[in-house]
Structure formats: structure tokens, C-alpha cells
Amino acid sequence: MDKKDCLILLRLLPKELQSGVFSELDPDIQEDIIKKLTDIDVKSIISSMHTDDRTELFEETSPEITRKLISLLSFEERKEALEILGYPEDSVGRLMTPDYVAIKEDWTIEKAIKHIRRFGKDAETINIVYVVDDEWHLVDDIPIRRLILAEPTQIVKSIMDEHFISIIAIADQEEAIKLIEKYDLTALPVTDSDKHLLGIVTVDDIIDALREEQTEDLTKYSAIEAAPIGLDFITKIREVPLRKIFRARITWLLALLIMDLVTGGIIKSFEKTIAKYVVLVTFLPVLVDTAGNAGSQSATLVIRALALGTIKMKDWIYLIGREFIVAGALGLIMGLGISITGFVRGGSFLIAQVVVLAMIVNVIIGSLIGVLLPFVFTKFKKDPATASTPLITTLADIIGTAIYLGLAYLILS
Amino acid sequence: MDKKDCLILLRLLPKELQSGVFSELDPDIQEDIIKKLTDIDVKSIISSMHTDDRTELFEETSPEITRKLISLLSFEERKEALEILGYPEDSVGRLMTPDYVAIKEDWTIEKAIKHIRRFGKDAETINIVYVVDDEWHLVDDIPIRRLILAEPTQIVKSIMDEHFISIIAIADQEEAIKLIEKYDLTALPVTDSDKHLLGIVTVDDIIDALREEQTEDLTKYSAIEAAPIGLDFITKIREVPLRKIFRARITWLLALLIMDLVTGGIIKSFEKTIAKYVVLVTFLPVLVDTAGNAGSQSATLVIRALALGTIKMKDWIYLIGREFIVAGALGLIMGLGISITGFVRGGSFLIAQVVVLAMIVNVIIGSLIGVLLPFVFTKFKKDPATASTPLITTLADIIGTAIYLGLAYLILS
């Protein structure tokens, strides 16, 4: 649908649906619509949006639009919006909504349900209600099912288990994802460091965050920079201008090109050996590629395990040890695989020897690079997924070429 | 914790917690525990497990254990288990649980809530209840919040919107993930093709499925076969035997090695040209690598967009057209990037010409392979992510080498 039709359709919708539909639109369409609607219409829409959707809108539209929008909010709403925008990007605070229902432990179930009936209409989710004390400290969370299954005359305290999972607002969104996943929650309460209840994060936002994370990992893996296009670009890939895709790809391609020139330099320095044994060149691709492939495999396993928290930073020595065994075995098989060709195509036992030896060493070195690099990036506060397959392939090229031609030089001369 | 301690701890837990804790254990630990517990204990645990967790247990344990377990179930439970196991793997039917609460449209809210109080205890989630007619056709879904917010004397029909999202049991789990994501659901009703309500899929299972999908994609991307180790292997990577990791990695490494030998063959056939201009070899890595890197980038974008449903199979021509423009621009920049080195290191204008030309053509061809391959795999009913970075790199090697040396031969002789 083109943007003009969007606008007309949105106006035709009943008031109570407008904000819901508007929340689901792409940020650029939202911005466009805001520009075209009167202030009164905009105010009516953003006032009835859920807080988390509104925060997302503020984050994604241009600063001037954000300023205009904030000016349209009521004092209360403005305070809320500025507070949430004050949390660091990627923090739980940015994902949370203050639209929850809180009850007190000395109420009866009947009073609690009445309270939910009265104040639940605005709440993002009332599948879970939260028990707070007089200072608004979070005391417990109660699934609504438990309230309903209880007798109306019981006291809230009697159905509390005083066991709940919560997270602080400045924590990383990753942490919230892990908690929701681990404990099968539909909502996660967010507190400040003194355990005051600030808001909740709902599972639908977590699923979106998980999808974004997935896209981020995959693009990093293939050396694409998501920054110039935003992480949700895949969902509107048809509309992303080509120059943005160009920008997302060119940085790493150029960086890798420069690294590849090093490989060329290494080859150049062995020019004499190559001129004498031109056949050596025919094994160059298979040797460096296999090292790169083995390295990519081990990097993926390490990156994924780091992301899921299965291995920790301190495990690196243990993993190097394991990798040495697996890569050694893989190297031997690959060496065997290449040996016949090495002999037949190379035409001499010496050449075959160089090729097989280089293969074994290359697979081991490539794999070890793959294991180490994600740890190195993590150490320097970079995402371990920066150890992309193209980067590892290129590093394996440089080192693999040096090892191969070095061995050839030593053995053949 | 070692397996013996697990067993002791599990026995020490109160009965009502045992099945919950047991459900969260790794399948191999579950199997171990089942072997060691008496039939009566096992029966008590599996009888109180949620149906979806139980199905997962049956799926993941060895056939003999599954048979033993099924024999311990009641007639009703056995029927249910066999029915669910009858659905194809990766189908929604396997994920669903029949533990939901259904109500009728002519009931009062009060009667409905009483019904939920009575039958809701076993239900996996009562955040949403389902309205069915007398033939058990799904008529509507009602979030429990709406029931609570309504007046007790109202009729269920009066709060129905007769608008609901459902899925059929034989549909792929991917579809369920997409629906839950798109409509921000916490549970999705599952029907047969006649719209009879069979069960529900809950959001916690979807998050698990999403994580598994993420791992699957990443491993495919780096040419690791997840089959020999299972998709949840990352969560217990420390315990996976090394030979299994070896098996997961060797297949693709060998396949790619064989493909790389083709590249060697191509180089061999240009041996004379190379012997005359040894310096050509120094540009081989940068040329084929850049093609591979560009190809990986475009493959990732296409694979991700296909997975999210942003682009369809029929879009391939459109995407090829776009890619041609972007890759052309990237190729020109890369060609410029290599030109000085080409001239300085190559020592002649002719060599520089070959290198720059080969770079432009290689980047374009590599990118086009990257765009096309995921479509080809989809066409042949393979996961598009099979177009892994190592595979694309290797194909780019073969074609890139042929183009480069071919151009060199034509221009230099």
C-alpha cells in the first residue's frame, strides 16, 4: 500500500484501533504520517499507544519529530517517555512498559480482582499481576490464573509463593531474553537497584528482540555492517535504498581486501620457489580454503556457545585443548584426502609431502584461530560474532599461505 | 551436578515439583533417571508432566525407553501421546498441548470463570480460553483479561469479537513462530483441517523453537552438520563427545576439499601462463576472496529475507537486477582499490588491467552466485541456509580462478 493510502485508511479506522495499527507500521511510514496529520490527530494516536511502542517510535524517528511528539504528550506521559529514553540503548529499560497492575498482599482476592477490573484496561498484560509493598518494592508476582483459581475470600498473601524472577532496568536486553527463556515467563518485572518496581517487559517484545539478535548475528557472520541500515532492514529489504546496502557491505570488503594484499605480499616473497615449482600453486586454494572452512566451523561453535552462556571466557584454554584434538583428527583426514592428488598432480613424493604436511598444520592453525578470535573480540568488548567467516577465511589465507610456501621452501630447497 | 546427585535431589523434591524439574533436564539425563527410578516413580512423574514436555521426552529418548514410558501411561494419556507422535517432525502438532480450557458462547461470564476455576488447574495456560461450539469447532479465543474485565452477568457471546488466529496441526513449526510473532500472541490454537480445536501452542515453546532455529541457521552457515549431534548440542557443548563434533564437521570439509581440487585443476591447465607471469599468483587470493566475501554477504541477505518472508521465490529476478547494480558499484570500488597494487606489484600496465578487470567481474559473479544459490536450494526443497559461506567461497574460488586466469591468458598472450 502506498503511503497516501496508509494515511487515508488510518483516518477511516475507528479511534480505538488507530494507535494499535499505527504501532505496527514501519518507522519511516510512521514518520511520514506524523508529518501529514494534524497535531490533534497525532496527539490522540500517540497518547493511546502502549508505552513501549511509543518509546520505539521516539527512538526511530528523527530528533525533530521526536521533540515535536514529546511536546504533544501530557505532563505525566512526557515524564515517562523521557525517563525510559534515559536508559542506555539495548538496556532492559528501553523495552519495558509501566503499564502493569500492582496489588497489595493484605487485600482479598475479591478486592484484587476488582482492582484489576478497574485498572487493568490500560495494562499491557494482566496475565501476571505484581504484589508490591507500601514503598512499591516488588514482593511477588502472581499469575492471574492463580488469582482466578483461588477463593474470592482468601487473602492475596495466602496465594503468594514469594518467589519471583526480576531484572534491573540497566541490565542488557540479552539478560532479559535469557531469563524469559529459562523460566518460561510471559512477562518479566523490571526494578531499580533498590527493588522498586518500574515496569515490565513482555514476551512479545522479547521475541522481536530475539529476531533482531538473530539478524544481527547472521549479518555479522558474513561481514555486513548493520549500522548504516538498522537491524530491522531485512523486514523491508525491498525499500532499503541501494546506496545503504552498498555502504553496509563496502567497509568490510575493503578491510578484507587490504588484508588479502598481505597474502599477495607473502606469495611475492616466495616468487622464486614458485617459478621453480609452478605446480605448488595448484594446491594453494585447497590448502587455505580448508583451513578457513575449519576455522569458520570452530568459530561458529564458540560464538554460539558464548551467546547462549554455555561456555565462559575462562574456558578458552579448555576449548583450545579440545579443538587441538578434533582439528588434529580433521587435519589427518584432510591430509589423507589430499595425498593422492598431491602425489599424482605434484608428480613427486617431495611435493606430496609438502602438501600433506601443510594441510595438517593449516587445518589445526585455522581451527585454533577460529576458537581464539571470538574470545579476543569479547576481551576487547566487541561482539564475538565480529569473528566473521570472511575475516577468519582471510586470516587463514595469510597464515596458511605463509605456512605452505614456507614448508615448500624448506623441504624443496 | 553429576547424574547420581540429580537422581537423589529429584527424589527429595516434593511430588508436585518433580515433574516440572524433570521436564527441564537434558534428554540424556532424563533417560538415565528413568532407567534408575522404579516404574511407580516414573509413572508419577510422567503422568504429571505437561503434554508437550512429555512428547519431547518421547521424541528424544531411545525407542525402547519410549515404549516403556508409553506402557506406563493411562489409556487416555497413551491415546494422546500416540496421537501427537503421529504428527510429522517439525510440525505444529508435535509442539501442541491439549491442556487448554474451552468454554461455550451461551454461558455467562460467571459460569465461564467457575469452569476455569474447576478445570484450569491442569491447563498449560489459561491466559487465553477458547470458545467452541457443540462439535468442538473453534469459534473464538478470549484473553482471560477480557473475561475478568467483563461483568459476571454478561454472556460470553457479548464479549466475543469472533476474530482469532489459528493454525492447523500439520503446518510447519516455522509458520506457528511467524504467527505468534506477527500477532504478539501468548498462545496459538491448533485445529485440524475442519477447524476442530485440537490443542494450543504456547509462547515458551516458540521461544525454544526460535533459539533452535537460530542455532540451526548459524551452523548451516558455517557448513556444520547439526544432525549427528542434535540441535540443542550447543547448550551442552562441554559434554558432547569429540567424535560427534568431528562427525558434524568432516562431511562438509571433505565435500569442499573435493570442490577445491577443481580449482587446482583449473590452475594446472593455465600452468604455462603462470610460469611466464609468476606475479599473477600474488593476486589470486585477493581476487577469489573478495568474490567469496561479496557472495557471502548477498547470500546472507537473501537467506534472512527468505526466512522472514520479506521476499518470495518469485522475487529472484528482481533481486538479481538489484544485486547487479550494487555488486557493480562494489566491483568498481574494489577494482580501484586493487589497481595501484596491480600496477606496482604487477610491474606492467597489462597486468594491472587484467587484475582490475578480473576484480570487477569476480565481485559481480560472486554476488550473483550468492543471490541465486539460496533460491536454487529452496527450489530443490533444501533449506536456503545450505548456501553456506564456505560453499559460496569455494564456488567463488572455482569460477573466480577460471575468470582471472582466462582473462590473463587472453590479454597477456
Summarize the structure.
Chain A has 413 residues and is mainly alpha-helical. The first copy, chain A, is built from 18 helices and 6 strands.
Write structural notes for this entry:
The structure is a homodimer of 413-residue chains. Chain A has 413 residues and is mainly alpha-helical. Chain A folds into 3 domains: 3-86, Alpha Horseshoe (MgtE N-terminal fold), CATH 1.25.60.10; 102-207, CBS-domain; 256-412, Orthogonal Bundle (Tetracycline Repressor, domain 2). Chain A is 64% helix and 6% strand. In chain A, strands 1-2-3 form a 3-stranded mixed beta sheet. The model of chain A has no long low-confidence stretch (mean pLDDT 85). Chain A has helices at 3-12, 15-24, 27-36, 39-47, 51-60, 63-72, 75-85, 92-95, 109-119, 144-149, 173-182, 203-221, 242-269, 271-276, 284-308, 316-346, 349-379, 389-412; strands at 102-103, 128-132, 138-143, 167-168, 187-191, 197-202. The interface between A and B is large, with 104 and 103 residues.
List keywords for this structure.
MgtE N-terminal fold; mainly alpha; 413 residues; Tetracycline Repressor, domain 2; homodimer; 6% strand; 3-stranded mixed beta sheet
List the helices and strands and how they pair.
The structure is a homodimer of 413-residue chains.
Chain A: H1 3-12, H2 15-24, H3 27-36, H4 39-47, H5 51-60, H6 63-72, H7 75-85, H8 92-95, E1 102-103, H9 109-119, E2 128-132, E3 138-143, H10 144-149, E4 167-168, H11 173-182, E5 187-191, E6 197-202, H12 203-221, H13 242-269, H14 271-276, H15 284-308, H16 316-346, H17 349-379, H18 389-412
Helix pairs in contact in A: 2-4, 5-7, 11-12, 13-18, 15-17, 15-18, 16-17, 17-18
